[in-house]
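Before relying on records like the one below, remember that each one covers exactly one chain. Contacts with other chains, cofactors or solvent are not represented anywhere in the record.
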Amino acid sequence: MAAISRPRSTVHAWKPQVPGIAEVFHARFTDHAYPAHVHDTWALMILDGGRVDFALDRERHGVGVSDTVILLPPGVVHDGRTVTEAGFRKRVLYLETSLLPPSLTGAAVDAPLLLDGALRERVHALHGALGGRDDPLEAQSRLVFVQERLRGWLEGRPVIPYGVPDARTAVRLRELLDARVLGGITLDEASALLGHAHPTHLIRSFRQAFGLPPHAYLTGLRVARARRLLLAGMRPAQAATAAGFYDQAHLTRHFGRHVGISPAKFARSGRV
């Protein structure tokens, strides 16, 4: 009996001319697993096919095609993976924190799955307006209504501050990494800047607080920067060094794990 061929994975991404939206990302994945990572934006996702399983702040969730909208907050560790052989199709909007303040992160961690048919329709319509790439007024108008409904969901819940009590060392290390995305920082440097904390203590504290080691966090920040540079038209080789990677091969290795496609194909995907 002949093996059933899977549909190939595809990615289509671009930076729209709409303030507040950092990236539009449409993808079909048949066999892909995202490593644990964070975004500096909100990730607003709807599924058009299949099922996806993900962990957010160490709690696993699963969802299929329905009226459910997935909202992942910035700065919180999550992963994602296919569930069935058919894979899944998704559309994602990466929203800047100017639209939804980080103070709403706790509410989103508590309930990342929003069962709201009207919200899903609004997100679907917004994608349609963004795909046209004509007058941005329609997309901006639809974005306002999406923002309104998301805030209604998040602000209607008790605000749960996100963070780990007494994790000051981990928070300060994270601030150092955020400030040193390009040049990076060694553990010895971090130790000296953080009161000569032992390197193993730094790593354990960071992992306990944020769910991944410091180097993985920094890699995620660099991949996110490379995505923005590629969508702005920069060639992969230049984007690699501009994002803090050693070279294009270094970027390609990590980019494939995080995005499911090579940097070159990602850059071309928005020109289709």
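The chain has a mean pLDDT of 88.
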